[in-house]
Amino acid sequence: MPVKVEQELYLDPSIRDWVLIPITLIMVLVGILRHYVTQLLVSAPKKQTLAAVREQRALARGAILRTSTPLSPLYPSQYKAFSVSLAAALSSGGYLKEEKPKEGEEDKVQNPFDPANMDGMMDGMKNQAVMMVPNMIIMQYISVFFSGFILIKLPFPLTLGFKSLLSRDIAMPDLDVRWVSALSWYFLNLFGLNGVFKLLLGSDNAAVDTRDMSGNMMPSLPSGPGAPDPSRLFRAEVENLALAEGSYRWACEGVENRVLARFGKV
Amino acid sequence: MVSDAERLAQWRTIGSRHSEEVIEIAPRVLARSTDQEWAVREQLVIAALDVGRIELASEQIDILEKKFPASPRVLLLKGLRLEAEDQPVAAKKVYMAVLATDETNVTAHQRLIAVSLSTTDVPTTIPVLLTYLDNFYSDPSAWSLLADLYCRVQMYAQALTAMGHLMLLQSWDSNAVTKAGEIAYTMKDYPLSLKYFLRAVEMENGPRGSAPSESTKAWWGVKQCAGKLLEEGETLTTVVPDSMSTTPDQLKALDLLATERLLAIGGNDMESRRKILGEEIIVR
């Protein structure tokens, strides 16, 4: 079997000047443009109402009381009073931001098209549109004008597995993997310019969000449709409070002996 | 060596005032272009108002307002300026206006409480503070203030409850425990007070073998409570359950230990300290 001779292709320098550099430049500029367009489109975060804040803090309050139980700073009757009054307040629905739902309709599913929840969804859609439109246009432009162009040769050898990544739309099965086609160069830029944008626009830029998409989508979920029903969370918290009572211990219990032992008096 | 800008940023994050220094440092930082320009200006305004240099503050507020028109933070600064100029009613209006656009603005709520405290009496402020705490539970300084206010109107049981919330929120804070001990002492609940002071001692001192803490406050509390409990014959009303109460033997040992520690911790006032503790040493 003959040893494979290294392929030597000579690329026209005008390919570099008129294809490679322009594609890269366009990608960078579009990224920067996208950053500013997103800033224009995204509306300011909606302000929470006082009642909503109160509802959230009530849950946190239960958690604070519960986590402190193994070494509680509260003396026994005070702990009891705190725990019972909080449980009563939670189960009576006094902390809910809306009226307590009537029995029977408690399990109704939240309307996903409730106008209160639409803003979050619209923001996501706007972001995606800003992301998608330019990408589609550039991809179309490259595949129409530069289809089949070989732009660069990577300075290091690669295995055949990278063929589909690097030699897209070049129908030459024997071509060395190191040669990069125009469309592949576009994809490499799309995913590889993250660092450049971070340098140019700061770390929380909107130029690249293909990767951050999952990160951005998740925190917005609880406020949108499908958020857990607060009254149900409250009921769970009441149960947790009752459970935590078992592990309650006053931090000052037996403190006399601990202090005496600390100073060697026992 | 920490740079000026870093020092200012550090004070901003921990909410420390250092007003005199800020007024000195901030103009130097602002002279160079910095990406924290607006935060530094805000800090400078608050520091200037704090020491009563209202012209300097006004100058900075004007710059900030030009950059951020209708920003609630600038509005709050204007409210602070009104407070500094002793116009609490006008300041209150500003804060109310901020709350009308955003009812969750914590700073505006806090300033309203402060204004209410300076213009009206304690009994009218306490309900305002309680409403605020009902919404924003996790504000330790508000609970601390509530405890102080309750103490001022001699409602010590309520003050202890407020201290309970404060201790829950800042479970590391031995000063809060000492304060709770002092309130319990004022209520004449000496067993509870002793427990709190001992807990504070325990929190301030590391494990056995490490250097003991230099602070004497909690030890004085222990000494006072132990003395009271040893002399008092009458039965005291206390919230400490019988099963956890301090035994007479423990009391005697703690009394001796407190005297020992108070004399062992050096300081400038050793003479007067000896005089106060003196009698007992002679008795022994």
Describe the protein.
The complex is a heterodimer of chains A (266) and B (284). Chain A is an all-alpha fold and 266 residues long. Chain A contains 10 helices and 2 strands; from the N terminus they run H-H-H-H-E-H-E-H-H-H-H-H. Chain A is 56% helix and 3% strand. The longest helix of chain A has 31 residues, at 115-145. The radius of gyration of chain A is 31 Å and the shape is elongated. Among the domains of chain B are: 1-69; 83-119, no CATH class; 194-284, no CATH class. Chain B has helices spanning 4-14, 19-31, 37-50, 54-67, 72-84, 88-101, 106-119, 122-135, 140-152, 156-169, 174-186, 190-204, 217-231, 248-264, 270-283. The interface between A and B is large, with 39 and 40 residues. Chain B: Residues 77-171 form the EMC2 TPR-like domain. Chain B: Pfam families: TPR_EMC2.
Output the keywords.
heterodimer, A: 266 residues, mainly alpha, B: mainly alpha, 15 helices
Are there runs of chain A of 5+ residues with pLDDT below 50, and where?
A: 102-107, 210-225
What about the largest sheet of chain B? none
- How many domains would you count in the coordinates of chain A? 1
Q: How many runs of DSSP E, i.e. beta strands of chain B?
A: 0
Would you report the number of β strands of chain A? 2
| Share in helix of chain B | over 70%
The helix-strand sequence of chain A is HHHHEHEHHHHH
Helix content of chain A: 55-70%
* H and E string of chain B: HHHHHHHHHHHHHHH
Summary, kept brief:
The complex is a heterodimer of chains A (266) and B (284). With 266 residues, chain A is mainly α.
SSE blueprint:
The complex is a heterodimer of chains A (266) and B (284).
Chain A: H1 13-41, H2 50-67, H3 76-92, H4 115-145, E1 150-153, H5 163-166, E2 179-181, H6 182-192, H7 194-201, H8 213-220, H9 230-244, H10 255-262
Helix pairs in contact in A: 1-4, 1-6, 1-7, 2-3, 2-9, 3-9
Chain B: H1 4-14, H2 19-31, H3 37-50, H4 54-67, H5 72-84, H6 88-101, H7 106-119, H8 122-135, H9 140-152, H10 156-169, H11 174-186, H12 190-204, H13 217-231, H14 248-264, H15 270-283
